[in-house]
Write a structure and sequence with these properties.
Elements (H helix, E strand, L loop, with lengths): L44 H18 L3 E8 L3 E8 L14 E3 L4 H14 L24 H5 L12 H9 L7 H9 L15 H15 L3 H13 L20 E2 L8 E2 L9 H4 L2 E3 H13 L5 H7 L3 E2 L5 E3 L4 E3 L2 E8 L2 E8 L4 E7 L10 H13 L43
Helix pairs in contact: 1-11, 2-6, 2-7, 5-6
GO molecular function: hydrolase activity
Keywords: Hydrolase
Protein name: Serine hydrolase
Length: 423
């Protein structure tokens, strides 16, 4: 929904992390740490077999080359399995230790950086964006809160035809933040600020510039020093250009000039910048999902504002400040040419789910990451099934870039999964 990724060897099942407590929706106190829900199953061999079958079924139906699925819950064990291939040319298997491009999960880091500046008193959520960036349409009335909550009314630069042509004709070229804003600002505003939810990458480019101005350094440096280091994420980075640590999976997309499926591994993610350029791996995303949902880097008051989820067009989905809730699961997803990821946390079970895959090609209008997450949660949390609107019917919750063509990838090989469940 809301959209660019490094090892070989068997997947592993790590012990579940220490329980998190989610900040209260209102007030300054955190809620007591709940006990894992009895409704969340033990991730034993029988559940693992069901999950294996469900993941294989989606893998086959969608022709996704490779996917890794991770589930963890205190007292329930863990499930970490990789299916399919990381490289369609060599047949190298997908693996849980690979770096991956995380697309719009970048938004969670950018907004966390912004909210840290709020806690420091350097910016205010109700400040107008025009105080920090000049030339923004409605810049005197669009607040930082409206930008982070996807209610600005600005045009999404990644839906501009000229942008799409520029990206697909030379996908290794760099883009500057100002170039991205120019693609947006040539269009009229879509609606008055705050009128409705409309997913927009332009908002995050602006917030990235705010972090740079108020933080006194580059966005990547600020996120490294104030978010990644304090959170202990040593396999997550904000790339300067197209660099991509090894080992990583190859990513495949049909968002191309020809409409044919191409290898997008080395495409320059600068076009996503604060909205979608970052790189991480399964274990770091596992850790980050809990940190994000529980607000350990923020004051309780600021985290409560972050988790003030407003409605979207989908009754099961709410959007806060750079974070969403889908039927109880809190976090974000990401999609950009070649890669998709989901990292979410279910507070009542203290459960974490991370899914990473190496294509963004839609299946019957749906993002494959959503299809995997839905299939997994139908088994482990049938009362909290992760679901997002399809990209074809809800473009505001679609990709970072313009809608892809209808070309489908060739069927991928599907070797047996690697990894084992841990009791």
């Amino acid at each position: 929904m809301l959209a660019v990724p490094v090892s070989s060897g068997l997947a592993y099942a790590a012990p579940a992390p220490a329980p998190y407590a989610v900040a209260a929706a209102e007030g300054s106190a955190r809620t007591p740490s709940p006990s894992p829900s009895a409704a969340f199953p033990d991730l034993d061999a029988s559940v693992a077999a069901k999950l294996d079958d469900a993941v294989r079924k989606v893998l086959k139906e969608t022709s996704v080359p490779g996917v890794t699925v991770g589930l963890w819950a205190p007292g329930k064990g863990s499930y970490v399995r990789s299916f399919g291939v990381a490289d369609k040319t060599t047949g190298a298997p997908m693996d849980s230790g690979l770096y991956t491009r995380i697309g719009s999960l970048t938004k969670t880091f950018t907004v966390t950086a912004l909210l840290e500046l709020v806690d420091e008193g350097k910016v205010g959520l109700d400040d107008p964006i025009g105080r920090y960036v000049s030339g923004v349409p409605n810049g005197d009335t669009i607040t930082l809160r409206r930008l982070a909550g996807m209610r600005s009314g600005l045009f999404n630069y990644s839906e501009d035809p000229d942008f799409y042509q520029a990206l697909t004709s030379d996908p290794e070229r760099p883009f500057t933040p100002q170039e991205l804003l120019d693609y947006s600002f040539k269009h009229p505003v879509l609606f008055p600020p705050g009128e409705r939810f409309d997913y927009c990458n332009t908002n995050l480019i602006l917030l990235g510039l705010v972090v740079e101005k108020a933080g006194g350094t580059t966005l990547g440096r600020y996120i490294q020093d104030h978010v990644l280091d304090p959170a202990g994420l040593d396999r997550t980075l904000f790339p300067v250009g197209a660099e991509f640590p090894s080992p990583h999976a190859h990513g495949y997309t049909d968002q191309t000039a020809s409409g044919k499926v191409e290898d997008a591994t080395d495409w320059n993610p600068s076009w996503g910048w604060a909205a979608g350029a970052m790189i991480s791996d399964l274990e770091d995303l596992r850790s980050w999902a809990g940190t994000l949902a529980t607000g350990t880097l923020l004051t309780p008051e600021t985290q409560a504002q972050r988790l003030d989820f407003e409605g979207t067009s989908d009754p099961g989905t709410g959007y806060g400040l750079g974070i969403f809730k889908s039927n109880g699961w809190i976090g974000h997803n990401g999609s950009l040419p070649g890669y998709e990821a989901v990292a979410v946390y279910l507070p009542e079970a203290q459960a974490t789910m991370v899914i990473v895959l190496n294509t963004d090609i839609l299946h019957d209008g749906a993002e494959p990451s959503t299809l995997f997450a839905t299939a997994v949660t139908e088994i482990v949390t049938p009362g909290h099934v992760y679901a997002l609107p399809s990209a074809t019917t809800q473009t505001t919750q679609g990709k970072e870039s313009a809608p892809p063509s209808a070309t489908s990838p060739a069927p991928a090989d599907s070797p047996e999964p690697s990894g084992t469940p841990s009791p």
